[in-house]
């Protein structure tokens, strides 16, 4: 396995880091790779591009970042390339964090400008904007939040769901959340107060009395209380200042493996529940999911757990190769990090919807490593 190496932006063809039954991870510069074989065989076949590009940070992360207008142009250049890969009802979902201007307590608008430039460059529709709220995030930027105390902590990332069509494939019935206690009581009681609300909404006699198996989630995504607690408890073991929802040591055997074997972990791993939300919402089993900034391949791994096919491209060889441990550790331990517990309790938690965010109640649990091994005999 190669050790840490600089990002490959040399325009060489992408090479295969590893192949799994449902997907392949390539190493290379994705902008170049998407324009050439072997990636071009996926054109027109991708149902969902789900990705978190390098953020336009002022302080450089390990994998490097472009700044200013250069960043905006660079990200926008991906729009037409990725759009060519979509099916006729496919979607592109991009997560970006907030950046701050250098040396002063003002927020950079670069991420928003880059998203707008991306959307415009390929004539995409903005289907919906989501906010991914992480209350367990450490207070940052420290200078403004904890030293000078003139700003509050920055605790969300922005997620844009775009598509070349205004009506891409989507079904919120696949991502229903648990009903609140009040709603469950209402369903049991079978009556409530109809009439006109101050908002001028007309509430009919039976408007809310059908049990649809769960609530339709809002476009603000946040972790469950247990996931927040796990985040806080795990914070002492983390070497990064970015705490991600349900990226806890207890939940993820891959992270435990990296720590125990002194393998540097990706500094900006995506919350798995965030990936699951969009994979479940916008694709069906068998569909193809692409991540052009795969990092530790959270997207491919979650897509795999949800019975989807996947393809990823990552420029950094170290992150690309070590991410295969996600799959190996899952096969070895049978622990599904979407639940953070043993497969025995995974099925139970699928209906209880914990830990993490959002709380998915209706979707079917993918097969565990242990049961797969048992089936193979
Ligand atoms: C925000 S991270 C993605 C993290 C990933 N979602 C995960 O959960 O691990 C962005 C990734 O893009 C990679 N990257 C940067 N430039 C790239 C390029 N031109 N082509 C492919 N990958 C690139 C970085 O090495 C980094 O791993």
Secondary-structure arrangement, i.e. CATH architecture of the domain at 15-177 and 217-229 and 272-328: 3-Layer(aba) Sandwich
Radius of gyration: 21 Å
Write the CATH homologous superfamily of the domain at 15-177 and 217-229 and 272-328: Vaccinia Virus protein VP39
**How large a portion of the residues is in β-strands, by DSSP E?**
15-25%
* CATH T-level topology of the domain at 15-177 and 217-229 and 272-328: Rossmann fold
Helix/strand class: alpha/beta
Average pLDDT confidence is: 81
Main sheet: strands, sense, barrel: 9 strands, mixed
Distance between the termini: 30 Å
Give me the count of strands. 13
User: Helix content range of the residues, please?
Assistant: 25-40%
Secondary structure tally, helices:
13
- Within the largest sheet, what's the order of strands? 1-2-13-12-3-4-8-7-11
Contiguous runs where pLDDT drops below 50 for at least 5 residues: 1-8, 236-249, 341-377
Approximate shape: globular
* Ligand catalogue: S-adenosylmethionine
CATH secondary-structure class of the domain at 15-177 and 217-229 and 272-328: Alpha Beta
Order of helices and strands: EEHEHEEEHEHEHEEEHHHEHEHHHH
